[in-house]
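Memo to structure team: turn this sequence into structure tokens by end of day. - J.P.
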Amino acid sequence: MKSIKAKLILATSVMILAAILMVAIPTLTNQDYVLKQNVMESATNHISATADSINSFLDKPKTIVKDIAFYVTRAELDLEQTQKDFDDMEEQHTGSQQIVSALKIMNDSTLEVKNASHEMADGNRAILTEIKNLQDATTVIKDEMNEMAVGASEMNKTGTLLSEISSKVRESINRMGNHIDRFKV
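Reply from structure team:
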């Protein structure tokens, strides 16, 4: 800022000097005229440079404002993106909670199935034990039926023998009766 003030003062001084020279020396020699031209050209160059510096200085706030506007826009876009990311994370969190809840339900169901499977296995073991007992009882009954069949066969044989013996006894009685009838009393 001080350098711009100094340039403004210098430019103003050069302009004043140039004006004095133009007014103070109405008649100039050729050499004076060249000097006057050089002074005027130098003053013009200084004035131009000073004007450029001033314009540059005045343009800086505009540039700064543009830069600030750019960064504000970027910040707004970043804020929008951050909000979107936050919303996405919130949605993901909600989805994760639903998945955890579903997994808990599945785990609970799995435990129920496991417990029911244990009960079914215990029931199956009891059924298998009873089937084994029934098979053993059936084997015993079968063996006893076989023994009864053997006994019935023996009884049948005995009955046949008794029948034969009875027939023989009858025959013998009949023969004895015939022999007795021969004896007269």
